[in-house]
């Protein structure tokens, strides 16, 4: 088995795709008007319009309803990412050092999902991610 992607369901495809293009610095590949993917070196983020849910089972997912997942992106400089994005999204918390050694900032995407950008800062955190 191989984990392929995380998919978010969006009421506003343009806003969601634009937000994640800004976060990742990657252009989305639009596979259909209601479906796009942002492929990074580590993972793929898929974004489907609300109308795509019916292809699986109507009502099985809904935009803006997530309050359990946090999408995390490791960045080279969390403070630079904060400066770049602070006027584009709702801030959850400003950059701060977390107990497990990551400096982190969190925003909400246009549909309300929490997005965490972090940089490993302690030696233990750097070792977990293979960076020194």
The major β-sheet equals: 4 strands, mixed
Structural class: alpha/beta
Q: What letter string, H or E per element, gives the SSE order?
A: EHEEEEHEEEH
The gyration radius over C-alpha positions equals 16 Å
What are the segments in which pLDDT stays under 50 over at least 5 consecutive residues?
none
The general outline is: globular
User: What share of the residues does DSSP label as strand, in percent?
Assistant: 35-45%
Tally of contiguous helical segments? 3
Total E-strand runs: 8
Q: State the strand order across the main sheet.
A: 1-4-3-2
Helical content class: 10-25%
Mean pLDDT, rounded to whole units? Answer: 94
Amino-to-carboxy terminus distance: 30 Å
Question: Can you describe what's shown?
Answer:
The protein has 132 residues and is α/β, with parallel strands linked by helices. The chain has three helices and eight strands; from the N terminus they run E-H-E-E-E-E-H-E-E-E-H. The longest helix is centred in the N-terminal third of the chain and has 12 residues, at 13-24. The model has no long low-confidence stretch (mean pLDDT 94).
Keywords for this entry:
single chain; 132 residues; alpha/beta; 4-stranded mixed β-sheet; 3 helices; globular
Topology:
Elements: E1 6-10, H1 13-24, E2 29-32, E3 35-39, E4 44-49, E5 70-74, H2 78-85, E6 90-97, E7 102-108, E8 114-120, H3 123-128
Parallel strand pairs: 1-4, 5-8
Antiparallel strand pairs: 2-3, 3-4, 6-7, 7-8
């Amino acid at each position: 088995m191989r984990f392929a992607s995380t998919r978010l369901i969006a009421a506003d495809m343009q806003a969601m795709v634009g937000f994640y293009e800004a976060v990742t610095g990657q252009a989305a590949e639009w596979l259909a008007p209601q479906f796009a993917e942002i492929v990074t070196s580590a993972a793929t983020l898929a974004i489907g319009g609300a109308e795509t849910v019916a292809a699986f089972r109507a009502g099985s997912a809904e935009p803006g309803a997530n309050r359990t997942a946090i999408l995390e992106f490791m960045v080279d400089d969390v403070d630079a990412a904060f400066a770049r994005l602070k006027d584009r999204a709702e801030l959850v918390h400003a950059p701060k050092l977390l107990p497990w050694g990551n400096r982190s900032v969190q925003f909400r995407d246009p549909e309300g999902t929490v997005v965490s950008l972090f940089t490993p800062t302690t030696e233990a955190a750097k070792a977990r991610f293979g960076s020194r």
